[in-house]
Give the backbone structure.
Amino acid sequence: MTALDQPARANNPARPLPRIPFPTVDEIARHCHQSTEPETVHIEVHLPGPLNPERLRTAVTEALHRHPRILMREAPGPWYRRRYEWELTDSPDVEVVTFPPPTRDALQHARTRALDRTPPLTASPPIRLEAIPLAHNSGSAPGTGPRTALVLTVNHTALDGPACLRVLATAAELYGGKDNSPTAPPTRPPDTPEPPTDTPSVWTPPARVAPGTPDPSPGGNGLLLVELPVPHRPKGSPYTVNDQLMVTTALMIAHWNREHGEHPRPMRITMPVDDRPRDTDMPIGNGTRLVEVTFAPDELTTGADPARMGELLHRTATRTRALKALPRPQLGHGATLLTTPVVPVAWRATLTRGLRRAAAPWTSTTLLSNIGRIPYTLDFGDEAGRAHAVWFSAPARMPRGLTVTTASTAGRLHVALRWSRTLLGPGDGAHLRDLFEHYLHTTEEHSR
């Protein structure tokens, strides 16, 4: 992210509000906005106890001021302006935290809103947080209060999931008085990237996810959340859990496409890479860069052969290490060129949308966003407790039409499958979940 947090600003209506030009990622996302498939990030946090509404509102408001870069809205401007700009505000324009009525379907309705309704860029901040009391957990000890789900919806033109999780961790610390400092990342041997071999050409159009039975609901995304054990990885393995998830995702889609009669083609999976620190100085915005991991068709027919699975995991590890080590702009050099402010931004928007349509056949097959181990305890104090599940889901616009987002909390892997309703339906999502679980288990069994 090129624009970092700005210092807190005094409330002075006579002073013009500071402005920041849209970085490359924000501008491209703004150009390609579609109301039929909203570009939202959904974050869902489950807590074992109840939350006090006023305390939560106060904590969230204070957290926004401690990370003032999130307090922004799109500044108005003439059509011939050369840049979009963020206007940094002194305080929220809207009430960020809401408390829907505790009905039986309240959580499902909140998830649907998170996928279908984008917080507007014209009101600061472009996020919303819904706190939803859940039904009493019959497995809990007698006398315990209701559990709570926090559903955070983020306009992805402005912010990404890890940045908003950082703000939520600050709110948790302010609410509960517990230390929510990030834990140290896992210690791993230093990477020694090797040039990947036999990688399919990036100029070959990749496989598409085969259509299933589309959801009759008009537009938008469908969602399925899964909780699984974190996959086992032999001690000293050269590959990571992220590599296991990458292989699992590739095998899942290859299996799905074979079932639907698709001709084998190379597969490309977009992988966000985030190098930001996770402490209170973390830059807030869209801070990941995107790389693409490529698989040849014959690599995705491992079956139950342990040797071939081990080879595939090792090759994947080599590719991901090389891609992570490669210096590259967030969306590549082409996006940087497209956002150079030499002509009015409205003209660049038209060009960008046209190029996106033309490049659709070369768009990657899917996106796998592995947040990894959640670095914060997200402890909201003695009554509400510490988060025991955290899900993220990334937008699933066509032509990809399917994204996989993973995170681990409390020793469990939380997986979100999100799809375009024009491509898949709920039954398709359930089948893909079963395939994902099967192949994740296969990477454990046959990688030793």
